[in-house]
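Render this sequence as a predicted structure.
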Amino acid sequence: MLIKLALPKGSLQESTFELMRKAGFHCTVSSRSYSPWVDDEELEIMLIRAQEIGRYVEDEVFDAGLTGKDWIIETGADVVEVAELVYAKHTRRPLRWVLAVPESSDIHSVQDLEGKRIATEVVNITESYLQKHGVSAKVEFSWGATEAKAPELADAIVEITETGGSIRANKLRVLDTLLISTNRLIANKKSWEDPDKRRKIENIALLLKGAMLAEEMVGLKMNVRRADLAAVTALLPALQNPTVSPLADEEWVAIEVMIEEHTIRQLVPALKRAGAQGLVEYPLNKVIY
């Protein structure tokens, strides 16, 4: 049984490979190749532009693929969405498709776009947005560098942004958000109905989601006197109850727990004051529960 998996070529390639590695799938590819090697005999991977993956998965060229919800909507791909995976090129946050105009523009709302020209890569999403607001405007497909097209080549743009840095750098003003998009693991309906292929795809989803959750968590070990155990455990926000193990000295126990990484800087000093000793923080590869 072989699963043909499409991964995004381009800006998401490196972050996708890193996520796959953390999930346990080690991939390597040369700079000119579109067929990475992966250390799983049940997987065959090909790199494809994210814009095309939904269509190819629907057409059963691939059993499964990783692409954005935006491109599923834009292409109208009829696929099974197996898992949501919130990651981007630089951050772990959703992407936004925004309507923007030059800072000096006299356009202040979508209604002001009547009869205007808009440049974007997501023509269908933009046209649906305009139709929803009862506005008639000319929507032109942009092959790239969309932020640079206003005002000389377009009155407004619809562009994707991760941090907003490129929008600000090009002196643009955001009027509205058309779509908030995250990445999805998708499958075609025929493969999803095949029990063996479905099990493999579900396993991939489980491991990818576990790897993403682990990025937000850390493991924490410590030693605690039994007399201080209640005070220490009361401070621990865990997925489940912490693991408490006896030590050779009967007056002491070892505690191990998983916690959200952003809480560490407040939690560790509090644990120390409550009596914890020998605190050790360590990274996690996957968290599955």
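Summary. The two ends are 27 Å apart (CA to CA). The mean pLDDT is 92.
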